[in-house]
Design a protein that fits this description.
This protein has 200 residues and is mostly helical. It folds into 2 domains: 63 residues, Orthogonal Bundle (Helix Hairpins); 106 residues, Iron/manganese superoxide dismutase, C-terminal domain (minor pseudopilin epsh fold, 3-Layer(bab) Sandwich), CATH 3.55.40. Helices cover 52% and strands 11% of the residues. It contains 7 helices and 3 strands, in the order ααααβββααα. Strands 2-1-3 form a 3-stranded antiparallel beta sheet. A hairpin with a 4-residue loop joins β1 and β2. α1 packs antiparallel against α2 and α3 crosses α4. The longest helix is centred in the N-terminal third of the chain and has 27 residues.
């Protein structure tokens, strides 16, 4: 069961190929941990909120609930991102065959995913859509904007500037290539298999 208030351990050393320890330290120890602390703060404030002032234009309840979704998704997406890093980028597993089936070829999926990375202001996600049982690529410009309801993230790429700017400046393409060089496809495949098993 998901615990939003608990820092999840990294499964890899903080220094990756072409992605520096400084980037990971800032990303994991400050940003991700900061979202967990903010989640805890929001949950405590919601316990005390005056619901009699609820209003769609502005109310404390509305603002807290909006930011609750922003913060929860920030935690989920960061964990999904960090979980699949630390590998050698070697492509393997059952999920590769499902990608080929759902996208026509692995190359077609990869081209689409990388292009979405260049388009995204926040996240690029390969997700399993429980609505029709297919894999889909989508992007989120912020944690709680443009996600597809009923979709579970499997392969998540952070496209916020903090994920790449220290190491690559504005060169998003080079960051995307480095991201793929560090993927652990064994973990990605296990995540996919668990999702499909839990759905059946």
């Amino acid at each position: 069961m998901k615990n939003y208030g608990e820092l999840k351990k990294l499964l890899f050393s903080k220094s990756l190929k072409k992605i520096s320890e400084k980037t990971i330290t800032i990303h994991y120890d400050k940003l991700y941990d900061g979202y967990i602390k903010k989640w805890q703060e929001i949950e405590e404030k919601l316990k005390l909120i005056d619901k009699s002032s609820a209003n769609a234009t502005f109310s404390d309840l509305r603002e807290l609930k909006v930011e609750e979704s922003f913060t929860a998704n920030a935690i989920i997406l960061h964990e999904a991102y960090f979980d699949i890093l630390g590998g050698n980028g070697e492509i393997e597993g059952e999920i590769i065959e499902i990608i080929k089936k759902d996208f026509g070829s692995f190359e077609a999926w990869l081209e689409d995913f990388k292009a979405l990375g260049l388009c995204s202001r926040g996240w690029t996600v390969l997700g399993y859509d429980f609505n029709d049982g297919k894999l889909r690529n989508f992007l989120l410009d912020t944690h709680n904007l443009y996600g597809v309801l009923g979709t579970s993230p499997i392969l998540v790429m952070d496209m916020y500037e903090h994920a790449y700017f220290i190491d690559f400046g504005s060169d998003k393409k080079s960051y995307i290539e480095a991201f793929f060089e560090n993927l652990d496809w064994k973990i990605i495949n296990k995540k996919f298999q668990k999702i499909v098993k839990d759905n059946n």
